[in-house]
Amino acid sequence: MTISVLLADDQALVRAGFRSLLRRTRDIEVVGEAATGDEALRAVRELRPDVVLMDIRMPGTDGLTATETLTRDPELAGTRVIVLTTFETDEYVFAALRAGAGGFLTKEIEPDDLRQAIRAVAAGDALLSPSATRRVVAEFAHRAPSATVAAERLTALTAREREVVALVAAGLSNDRIAERLVISPLTAKTHVTRAITKLGVRDRVQLVVLAYETGLIRPGHTAESDG
Fold this sequence. Notes:
By secondary structure, this protein is α/β, with parallel strands linked by helices. Helices cover about 50% and strands about 10% of the residues.
């Protein structure tokens, strides 16, 4: 299957650079471009891409506003957003996660990492590396005390699903979760999918955010800390 991508950035050279990199990728196709948030939203509604590479700072409707509008529209649920930022510590990254982005990339990303990131988010898997996921989402949880979700929300999960969510939040892939719990990768993926559905979150990254917000996992926690 070919993954369709929309490039949203106000700098033509940046769009050209990403387009050139992705053009040589057999399973990824750039189907459109946008220079503003408004153009991005119109293009998404028309083209229904699998993934949008969304710059934060654009004239008119910025990338954060466009991301929130997109992710809240049930008709566009098939499109996932990767926010682009100049610095990994950019304050906007945390706002982007709150807006519903599936994750973020720096514009200095290596070509192979960009391709893998697009494939990962298109599949609904974790976009960020385990270390980046823990660091960024832990920081997000600290900076959003007013958005803390009641831990009672987790009562919808089975004990095994809670265990799986905690391991997702600790940065483990489905294969690693399967190894840890001595189950098949397919069963691990099924538990993750059911948890996402029961908790009403958009994707795996938002599942991790919720795990921190509910206190299911503590900032600084790692899979290795469980022994």
